[in-house]
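Weekly puzzle thread! Below is a chain. First person to post its structure in token form gets bragging rights.
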Amino acid sequence: MRNQIKADVAIIGSGTAGLAAWRTASKQGKKVVIIESGPLGTTCARVGCMPSKLLIAAADSAHQVRQAPGFGVHPAGLTIDGKAVMKRLKAERDRFVSLVIDSIDTIPEASRITGYARFKDEHTLLVDEHSEVTATSIVIATGSRASYPQDWQKLGDRLVLNDDVFSWDDLPKSVALFGPGVIGLELGQALHRLGVKVWMFGMGGKLGPFTDSAVMDYAKQLFRDEFFLDTDANVQRMERSGNQVEIDFESEEGVTERIRVDYVIAATGRRPNVDQLELDKLGLDTNDRGVPVTDTATMQTSIGHIFLAGDASNQLPLLHEANDQGRIAGDNAARFPNIKQGFRHSTLSIVFTAPQIAMVGESYQALQQRSQQDPESCACFVVGQVSFEDQGRSRVMRRNQGLLRVYGEPKTGRFLGAEMIAPEAEHLAHLLAWAHQSQMTVAQMLTMPFYHPVVEEGLRTALRDLNAQLKLGSAIEDRCMECGVGD
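Winning reply:
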């Protein structure tokens, strides 16, 4: 006999989106229950942004030692203790997870249900075999999981999902990493800088989040100069051989090469956790991946009282996006049927490679598509750019690599977006995201203060170039006294 539970709002999942939904829905005085199958702790804290940044921090430290002779500083030597690296990573990771669990523990016990939820009908959820939850509104916030080709299972324990790298007790000697996207680039470069031999393979020529081929091509060359990278690999064979994996692939010169690695790391994407909810009982409108189609302004699905938020929505798998979506979904679930459009921040994503990668506002691809669909109304867009190879502050730090491209609208002079690989890109991107959300024009952005010498002066150069392309200002004068060497 199942426990019969009635609620105003039922939330499936206690990750970032689920917790945000809980907070906003509970503030409206509604009876809210949250269902979690475990493990507790958000994807970000357990296997995502925090443990990856811990690995990157160790890698950056090793890289700085190697770079020291370029400043005339010669360290006595460099020894990387893989066990110590992973011990610190896991200790700090566990601390972050415990803070999330502490937050979950503040939810009243009567409002927490443990188990796997699946739909019985549009208003009813079955949780394992012990509970039946009936709710006026339901928020799906079930997150995502790593995905990979099923035939790779033949590799057994030599196959490691990107999530599982952080459970290692020591660093391996060699890996083949498949998937040069955001996760793959961060992991691959960090492991390389920690002394692991890395081969990185991709498909279709894509790299990271880039849609602007100029920036992507620049980034490809930078990473290829550091470790093996083939973004359109022809892998002919991959077989387990003892405690290693043997891989045959065709080189760019058309020659078959063979490598042996300790592990194959799959960083080949993530799959929304919606396939076990038995959504087929509901008749929801779904996309080609079986994910419910969602209104990005309200997080409402085709069934009005069912909402979707976070990584499960298959939109932008970022913590701040999951938090925004959860907040909107929880608020609308509690106020249903009187829903409203939620506030969404300007798009901002950052990849913590070196140099860092960032995307702000509308992507180059999105602007191209909009221009092609309605060239007269949007008047297309123009591009300004700057290289950081000769930028003053970047040269001082011996980190003078990078390319920033900024986009503007000719009719209004408004800043539209940017793609970049650059030193301190995390800070440049925040400035640009704030300007984008404020709907500033490029001319207004150029009235803001810029100190000297700072990396941000490179941003000013790109904006000046864009302003000239918009025909709203004069062209940049090479090394003019006004610009200074910081540009």
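Puzzle host: Confirmed. Bonus trivia for everyone else. Confidence is low (pLDDT under 50) at residues 479-484.
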